Amino acid sequence: MSQIDQSKIRNFCIVAHIDHGKSTLADRIIEQTGLLTSREMQAQVLDNMDLERERGITIKAQAVRTVYKAKNGEEYIFNLIDTPGHVDFNYEVSRSLAACDGAILVVDAAQGIEAQTLANVYLALDHDLDVFPVINKIDLPSAEPQRVIEEIEDVIGIEAQDAPLISAKNGINIDQVLEQIVQKIPAPKGSPTAPLKALIFDCVYDSYKGVIVFCRIMEGTVKKGTEILMMATGAKEEVVEVGYFGAGQFIPCDELSAGMVGYITASIKNVKDTAVGDTVTDAKNPCKEPLPGYKKVLSMVYCGIYPADGAKYPDLRDALEKLQLNDASLFYEPETSIALGFGFRCGFLGLLHLEIIQERLEREYNLDLVTTAPGVVYKVHKTNGEVIELTNPSNLPDPSEIEYMEEPIVNAEIMVTSEFIGSIMTLCQERRGRYLGTEYIEANRALLKYELPLNEIIYDFFDALKSRSRGYASFDYDIKGYETSKLVKLDILINKEEVDALSFIVHADSAYERGRKMCEKLKDEIPRHLFEIPIQAAIGGKVIARETVKAMRKDVLAKCYGGDITRKKKLLEKQKEGKKRMRQIGNVEIPQKAFMSVLKLDDRD
Amino acid sequence: MEQPKELMLYLHVPFCVRKCHYCDFLSSVHTDETRERYVQALCRELRVRGKEYSGRIVTSVFFGGGTPSLLSPAQILKILDTAREIFAFATNAEITMECNPGTISFQSKKMDQKGMATAEKQGKDAFDEKEKLAGYLAAGVNRLSLGLQSANDEELKLLGRIHDYETFLETYRLARKAGFTNINVDLMNALAGQTMESWKNTLERVLTLTPPPEHLSVYSLIVEEGTPFFEWNSQGRFTGKLQIPSEELDREMYAYTGKRLAQAGYQQYEISNYAREGYPCQHNYGYWTRKEYLGLGLGAASLLGNIRYANETDLERYLKDPLAGRSEQTLSRKEQMEEFAFLGLRTIRGVSRSTFQECFGENMDQYWRQVIEKNVADGLLMDDGEFIRLSARGLDLGNYVSAQFLL
Questions:
Q1: How far is A319 from A369, CA to CA, in rounded Å?
Q2: Residue B290 has what DSSP assignment?
Q3: Can you tell me the distance from the alpha carbon of B315 to that of B302, in angstroms, rounded to the nearest whole number?
Q4: CB proximity under 8 Å: A 506-565 to B
Q5: What 8-state DSSP symbol labels residue B134?
Q6: Taking the alpha carbons of A123, A127, A131, A137 in that order, is the dihedral positive or negative?
Q7: Distance between CA atoms of A567 and B25, rounded to whole angstroms?
Q8: Which of A44, A222, A451, B75 has its CA 20 to 30 A from that of B159?
Q9: Which residues have CB under 8 Å from B89's CB, separation 6+?
Q10: At residue B226, does pLDDT exceed 60?
Q11: Angle formed by the axes of helices B73-86 and B129-139, to 10°?
Q12: What are the DSSP E strand ranges found in A496-578?
């Protein structure tokens, strides 16, 4: 087979703030490089998970290889690696970036630079990528490309005068982008004859092929029959197939050599043998040292995930194992709840990540789940000097054994137009924020800087931010560290029985308010039973709030004629179906959604 | 010799003088001419469908609506004669007709102007009051079901009824005079703004009729989607003075009704039905015990063998071809068992183990032992070894119990 000339390969990604048009530009690049005809194009080819299509966001990093015939008459191979845009997925962005040599920065011609634009660009620059900007949505009436170009130069400090002015949606000036990819993104380096050194940036599980490893070859060559070694896990396997990424399919080829992006299958049975971020080398001729690992990201948000049907516990375990395979940021370990039985304590990058995993478990693995209130990791300093990292409120030691507790604090940057500064500052104040300062990007746009406790932003901060700024505020954060805080555990008692799965940690000052709201919400969620049910919130055995679900008095259809029988049956079936979605705690049946929905308490009710 | 199989007939009359504000039954306002076309379509359906069951013996006929008393005695006679040509009738066959007091008598001058005007136009020329009821009786109707709903004129007005209490009294008197000896009166409680006092008053007024009705049906108001009541309720109009009684008050009214009617000599035989000795409605009882019935007319439902049918619900299409547009649903064995339980539990007598054994050749307990035991323990069911029935509390929570009997 003909040797692929390294100088004709371009490995790149697209970075952007959410909604600035990254996925649409990716579609256009794929379309205009002739790999697919317009007729074959599904909208947003790269986002092939149903969930992504529905939410309109990109969750999983994926890659596609296309061939571009440049104006100089040469053919170039483009490996486009898609990256997620949401703040929760910095880890995924980070590992995708490590597989690239350059990045296209997409900026909305109307909105200009947003919080995640900055975060993603800095991440790309951290990985030594060459970044060139593209101004998108120039056909919008509110587009101000010249202003945005100046903003990019002022704020980020990269050259932007010759940035292509495009509309990805309407296919305007995409050819300029393609040319700049050739001109501005460097070709990969690395010797094809050196010992194999490849970076795993993603993997998926396929029921026919087993684990499919997505990798970027840094040095050397890999082909069918090569015995490979995963340097971190120590697993050795013989390569069954190598290939590259067509649009939505795997296309086998003879070999992958330095500078290429592709996949390897090696009949890997055990999903744990493959770790994203690991280095693949030749077992017989290993490289001296592995590539520097990805930036290791810790789970920030934890919650309990339980199967609604206890017998499905092994299925849930298998599903989590498979999800973790291509989502290394997902953490899980078994736990037991008195109320919910056997399940897992899972760690996530953020609340969106949590919701996505939950939905994927339900859709892709057909599991019916009960999810408990999300929480963060607290550091509990005990009087005996021991420090516990608390991820499950139920494990909080007795207050007499606690000297003090610490909670995680984030540095938050909120980009907002000046008219909303007041209401956003109020919101941050309500969430125990510490004001650090304001930077004006332009006359009417400012970057507010706050320190906020993470547990104040994981539930509904993003929603509150959007609703108080009519959708205009954008938000990014990173972890600053831990600080001592006055925290208490709030317990919920239903029919006098403590429900461990409903306990959560809260700042002492907001405990009463949260307890009261929680009781009110549960009162609405729990249906009437044959008996009266008290719902109480308590701190250390002291009840601070109470509501009562009254006993059921009437549940009967008065009239029921001949023709009504089918209708009555439907009514009864609906009633029975509803019961299935209940969780029995003591002699009280609690709807599954109550465990999660009680945490979505809007502060401004 | 083998006994001929029994059959009940249901005949739907989808016409009203005016639609009541709470009603979601299939009915609407139409002209004399449409009614005549309808009677012809109905008779045609009866002749064609009836043929399949011509060997059956009819034990009950029920004219329901809508307002069957908008049909003339001649029209009722025509329908019954058609039925008698096809089927044998049991000598004691119960033939019920629902009747709106506002279509029989126009005594009262206090009636709502619009209702009055329409009612007069619709019927006054067509009949003489006394003759109309006598005509129904002569046609073969032997049980009259009068829709009174309330003895309080303000409540009647809110419900959108076309009659007041005085009109009802006159109709009742005329019915007795015409010779009806089996009369049901329909009542409703838990009406918007209704108090316990007002409900007691309605009951007392009905009980002092002479002679008092043989049968009473008492329903609590259900605010059904698609009715003006539903609209008003979502607009928040049922607050303050027009508050819809709470679940608690609704049940107090229900408990009081059972107690008061028992004192007056009525026995409750179903969740909403009460009768003097010997007068339970055979037709309705047939529904709860899964007797076979052939339903004819717009939207009418049937149970024949193990198939449930539902007729066309669009009037124009029905008039064009009364045989088209019937849908059917074959009940699985499981579904038949479920119906046996949830329909049977509506009766005060309850469901019988030996009847289940007869119908299905199996022991009922193998399906529901746990459900029965749990509900007995919760005080919702009573089990005497043969019959399983709802307790007083169980009657309040009939759906809650029945849903557990779904397999």
A1: 12
A2: T
A3: 18
A4: 530, 552-563, 565
A5: H
A6: negative
A7: 13
A8: B75
A9: B57, B58, B83
A10: yes
A11: 0
A12: 497-498, 504-507, 533-539, 542-549
Which residues of chain B have a Cβ shorter than 8 Å from any chain A Cβ?
10, 64, 218-220, 222, 247-248, 250-251, 271-272, 284, 287, 293, 295, 299-301, 303, 308, 310, 329, 335, 338-339, 342-343, 346, 378, 380, 395-400, 402-404, 406
Query: What's the whole-number average pLDDT of chain B?
Result: 91
Q: Which of B284, B279, B252, B251 has the alpha carbon at shortest distance from B265?
A: B279
Distance of alpha carbon B291 from the chain centroid: 16
Query: What is the value of ipTM here, to two decimals?
Result: 0.84
Output the CA angle B200-B202-B207, nearest 5 degrees.
95
Q: Which helix (H) or strand (E) holds A467?
A: helix A461-468
Q: What pLDDT sits at residue A43? A: 46
List, in sequence order, every beta strand (DSSP E) within B143-244. 143-149, 183-189, 215-220
Among chain A residues, CA nearest to B307: A566
- Asked if residue A451 lies in contact with residue A411, where contact means CB atoms within 8 angstroms, the answer is yes
pLDDT tens sequence across B174-212:
999 999 999 999 999 999 999 999 999 999 999 999 999
- A305 phi, psi to nearest 5 deg: -120, 125
Tell me the two tokens of residue A339: 């109320």
**Contact in structure between A396 and A505 (CB atoms under 8 Å):** yes
Nearest CA in chain B to A531: B378
For tokens 């009603």, the residue is: B23
- What are the angstrom distances between the C-alpha of A557 and each of B202, B303, B348? 22, 21, 15
Q: In whole angstroms, what separates CA B180 from the centre of its chain?
A: 18
Tell which of A531, A553, A566, A579 to mutate to test the B interface (max B CBs under 10 Å): A553
Which uninterrupted H or E stretch holds B375? helix B365-377
> In chain B, which residues have their Cβ closer than 8 Å to the Cβ of A556?
271, 395-399
Q: Name the nearest CA neighbour of B199 among B163, B252, B263.
A: B252
pLDDT along chain A (605 residues), means of 10: 74 86 85 59 50 46 79 88 65 78 93 82 85 94 92 87 92 93 93 92 76 90 92 87 78 88 83 79 89 67 88 93 79 88 89 83 89 89 93 88 94 87 92 92 84 86 82 79 93 92 89 90 90 94 93 82 78 84 83 72 48
State how far Cα B293 lies from the chain centre: 14
Residue of A nearest to B250 (CA): A554
Please enumerate in sequence order all residues whose Cβ is within 8 A of that of A42, keeping only pairs 6 or more positions apart, or say none. none
Q: Which of B397, B404, B407 to mutate to test the interface with A (most CBs of A within 10 A)?
A: B397
CA A303 to chain CA centroid, nearest Å = 15
Which pLDDT score is estimated for A115? Answer: 78
Sign of the torsion angle spanned by Cα atoms B255, B256, B259, B260: negative
Give the C-alpha distances (Å, rounded to integers) separating A464 from A350, A423, A461, B360: 16, 10, 5, 60
Backbone angles phi, psi at B228, to 5 degrees: -55, -35
Instruction: Give the Cα separation of B119 and B108 in Å (integer).
Output: 12
Q: β-strand B307-310 against B293-296: which pairing, if any?
A: unpaired
Q: Report pLDDT digits (tens) over B332-349.
A: 999 999 999 999 999 999
The shortest CB-CB distance from A576 to any of B284, B380, B403 is to B403
Place of tokens 């746990």: B370
Q: How far is CA B281 from the centre of its chain?
A: 10
Residues from chain A that touch B406, judged by Cβ atoms under 8 A, are 572-573, 576
> Within 10 Å of residue A533's Cβ, how many Cβ atoms?
24
Q: Is B300:B113 a contact under the CB 8 Å cutoff?
A: no
Q: Which residues contact A155 (CB under 8 A, 6 or more apart)?
A: A113, A118, A441
- B66 preceded by cis ω (within 30°)? yes
